[in-house]
């Protein structure tokens, strides 16, 4: 789907395996960019189709302003083709748990679980784990030391304070 302003894209993909387990992949962002990815798992194809249609209708509503620009149905014969059909830049963002939901024997070595605290409408949904902790006291001390060094350098100027 393309936004009415022409600057954003929204991709909605329904993937169903032979056993009926499914995932719905939502991808959005600036036109031409990989953007953000959100994946939802479903135990049955029917549940996934209902969610897919609900999201499709929501995106096409007047407030969201997206319109369908392309629609395809593909059948993957070999599981090795899955990353290429979904997109080689999108596939790593799906996450190993979602890939193994479709195929428990798929080798997901090296894949990372997605990390985000926002949904596809950019609503806050909870805190993501931070990989870096920032101590405000350390930051304050570093800033004070920087200001003190700057003042000491200015005082080296013989004309400091004359104006």
Q: What structural class do helix, strand and pairing data support?
A: alpha+beta
The SSE order reads EEEEHEHHHH
Which value, in Å, is the CA radius of gyration?
24 Å
Distance between the termini: 62 Å
Which word captures the global form?
elongated
Task: Compute the number of strand runs.
Answer: 5
Regions with little confidence, pLDDT below 50 for 5+ residues? none
Strand percentage: 15-25%
The multimeric state of the shown protein is single chain
Task: Give the integer mean of the pLDDT values.
Answer: 82
Tell me about the largest β-sheet: 3 strands, antiparallel
What helical percentage do the residues reach?
A: 25-40%
Tell me the strand order in the biggest sheet.
2-3-4
Give a verbal description of the structure.
This protein is α+β, with helices and mostly antiparallel strands and 163 residues long. It has a domain at 2-102. 32% of the residues lie in helices and 18% in strands. The protein is built from five helices and five strands, in the order E-E-E-E-H-E-H-H-H-H. The strands form two sheets. It has a three-stranded antiparallel β-sheet, with helices on both faces. The N and C termini lie far apart (62 Å).
How is this fold's topology laid out?
Layout (H helix, E strand, L loop, with lengths): L1 E2 L4 E9 L5 E9 L5 E7 L2 H16 L5 E2 L14 H5 L4 H4 L1 H7 L33 H20 L8
């Amino acid at each position: 789907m393309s936004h009415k302003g022409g600057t954003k894209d929204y991709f909605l993909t329904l993937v169903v395996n032979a056993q009926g387990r499914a995932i719905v992949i939502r991808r959005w962002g600036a036109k031409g960019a990989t953007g953000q990815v959100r994946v939802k798992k479903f135990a049955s194809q029917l549940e996934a189709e209902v969610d897919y249609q609900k999201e499709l209708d929501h995106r096409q509503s007047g407030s969201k302003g997206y319109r369908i620009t392309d629609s395809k149905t593909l059948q993957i014969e070999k599981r090795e083709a899955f990353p290429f059909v979904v997109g080689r830049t999108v596939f790593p963002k799906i996450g190993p748990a979602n890939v193994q939901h479709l195929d428990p024997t798929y080798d997901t070595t090296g894949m990372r679980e997605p990390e985000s605290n926002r949904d596809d409408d950019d609503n806050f949904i909870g805190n993501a784990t931070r990989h870096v902790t920032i101590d405000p006291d350390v930051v304050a001390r570093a800033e004070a030391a920087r200001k003190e060094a700057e003042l000491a350098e200015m005082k080296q100027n013989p004309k400091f304070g004359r104006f």
